[in-house]
Amino acid sequence: MTAVLSGLRILEFAAIGPVPWCGMVLADLGASVVRVERPGSAAERDTLGAVRRGRTLVELDLKSAEGREAALQLVERADILLEGLRPGVMERLGLGPQECMARNPRLVYGRMTGWGQTGPLAQQAGHDINYIALSGALHAIGTADKPVPPLNLVGDFGGGGAFLAIGVLAAAWQARACGRGQVVDAAMVDGSAVLMAMIFSRMLMGQWTDRRASNALDGGVPWYDTYRTRDGRFVAVGALEPQFYDELVQRLGLAGQLPDRQEAAHWPEIRRRFEEAFGSRTREEWAAHFAASDACVTPVLSLAEAMAHPHMQARGVFMPWDAGRVPAAAPVFDGARPPPTPPSRRCSMAEVLQNWPSVPLPARGPTAS
Hints:
369 residues; Rossmann fold; formyl-coa transferase, domain 3; three-stranded antiparallel beta sheet; 15 helices
């Protein structure tokens, strides 16, 4: 099967967090990704591991005239550019949208930042936790006592890299039709807010309280939470619908013993009984007990355990990498997962230009709107 993004050329400028993750996703799906790195940046590269897979790597000193000109030669051949520097840095290097799109009018120029290219905070430093704090996402995640950062999944990757990928692919689709590229301003604060669209909507409809651990999906209800087992591990319970809840209660041996779950005043007692029940067996005993049921109970697996789970193995969710395994490409297309992405390989500038031959510029079409 031909890779779904085969033939798409992406020029990625080295950055941290969401940009290399976005480059990995696009490379996994078959795009040809050339990653420009600073000479001697080995320590920076080592932190990325498998996230840096699938690229052709070239080292360029972008502060030199020669390095900038080499980068612009790649710009001329690319469909999409990805960069994740603070606003204004690429312009100071002579590689901003104006310079790049003068060389390649059909270029989609993807920009990834935390706060966005505009706004009062655009030049301020920050990290995932700061961006999701401002969008409201962090406030909604955690215990009743305090917010808990959900790793860097919500800002960096969900609200950042994923929206960068969506944006540049959408703009590339439009560029195919009109022959003109555009700048995509992807901000983690924007994307993490969009991820919360359902929650904001439910709050407007009076179906969500603006208080952690008091709603159906934030651990507020006893039937959507995690519980410690006898061996100190955990199971996850997601029995939201009545039929799933009924099966949960029946399999816990609590049928007819619990108060009405429709009354919030009864939730502490239901939770206490669940805690007591789950604490009576080990995690693996509960996993076996609920294996063939629709009670929506699963073991909470560690990272190492997840790779060995039969379902994950059957679907090929993880692929071999070095001495272990890492997540493979997703999603699945026509019943087939994209083939394992190979490690990146370093190339000379001459080899990169040979692999990316010049593309005639299209006839001037209407400006993208």
